[in-house]
Amino acid sequence: MSEAVHPVDEILPVPKLAILGLQHVLVMYAGAVAVPLIIGRALKLPPEQVAFLISADLFACGLATLAQCLGFLGVGIRLPVMMGVTFASVGPMVAMGQDPQIGLLGIYGSVIAAGIFGIVVAPFVSRLLPLFPPVVTGTIILIIGISLMRVGINWAGGGLPFFTQTINGQSVQVANPNYGQLQGLGIALFVLLVILGLIRWGQGFLANVAVLLGIIAGAVLASALGLMHFDKVAAASWFDVIVPFHFGMPTFHLVPIVTMCIVMVVVMIESTGMFLALSDITGKPVDQKALTRGLRADGVGTLIGGIFNTFPYTSFSQNVGLVGITGVRSRWVTVTGGLIMLGLGLLPKMAALVEAVPQVVLGGAGLVMFGMVAATGARILTGVDFRTNRFNLFIVAVSVGFGMIPLVSPNFFKNLPHELHPLLESGILLCAIVAVLMNVFFNGVKQASTDEIVAAAKQAEAH
């Protein structure tokens, strides 16, 4: 008599796989396209190139998800995981891209190097877990949310409040006349209210896709008011192939590579927590070999991202939460989701449609999405012992202070070596480094238990 198939490995009927896989895609879609939108618009890329970044991201999401769920040659955790671009990489990549000596090709070079680094160090990363107790991870996630809130607020305002313009050979900052227009603020508020209403009164699947439905409602309103234009959607082709190195051959610079490798370590630590949480939810134990395969898949996904014109990948925690909510544990559901993402990446019209959504619409959703990241960090910190260990207060206080420097005073480090700017201009990385060092200084290195890591990961489901 053959052994019973574990629910994680159960192959469901095709119609059920399609519906459940689509649900996973819808839950992560807004987050999946957010990073290419942020990077593309921060680097002032033309709309068609931003649309291509979205297509490339969706395509690479699919490939990375398949590598993680199906697994091959020592790669893949083989649990129900959806892979997407990590928000932790946004700050460093924007800083790199805005440096004319690095640019987009320098970003891709650092992503490729970080992917290879991740593949090599995967067996050793789990040994770093003692450096990331809840007081450190909670602080880092809090700063990630605070950093991204600036993006969401500027989206709601209609773009950046100032933009750089060259006058008589000199770069000067000019006020954005469209920033803070009442019509745009009203649309952002409308999107926010729709999302909150769906979360409050929606049930099950409807509540799970509240962010996406809010964006759709906002896009319909913006279109009715004449603020959303579809000429580039009409011009986009129905089908296109995502080719490697679309923007040219990557370039490699030492400091951006080191910076992205640090991001990769943070990403892999986050993924470890997610894998342990999934192990608990699905009832399938994760041993050292399985954990190494999962972390190695993060590296492979990031390498795929650099080759196919996109960015570092990690497991999306909102999908981990969805597994817990639905109780459907089959990894073939997320395999189906990965195939759907692949298909969407090959449809340029879909990417062009997403790119056409006005920033004010995204702003209403961004306030929820990015605010939830900060709130998640705060929730993790509620489990930290501040009462009997006063050192933890200093760890959070100083780390948050360093993380806020690039947000509050972008020129704070202007007199330090230019090569260090991609690192120093990322509040997330500054916060991570300071939090780890402060924790080691005050608390030493203590081995975190699996239960503590799982509990922290479960709290981070909204991240």
From TrEMBL:
Predominant subcellular localization, coarse grouping: membrane
Subcellular location: Cell membrane
InterPro entries per the UniProt record, alphabetical: NCS2, UacT-like, Xan_ur_permease
Keywords recorded for this protein, A-Z: Cell membrane, Membrane, Transmembrane, Transmembrane helix, Transport
Membrane topology: Multi-pass membrane protein
Any one GO molecular function term: xanthine transmembrane transporter activity
Family stated for the protein in its record: Belongs to the nucleobase:cation symporter-2 (NCS2) (TC 2.A.40) family.
Name of protein: Purine permease
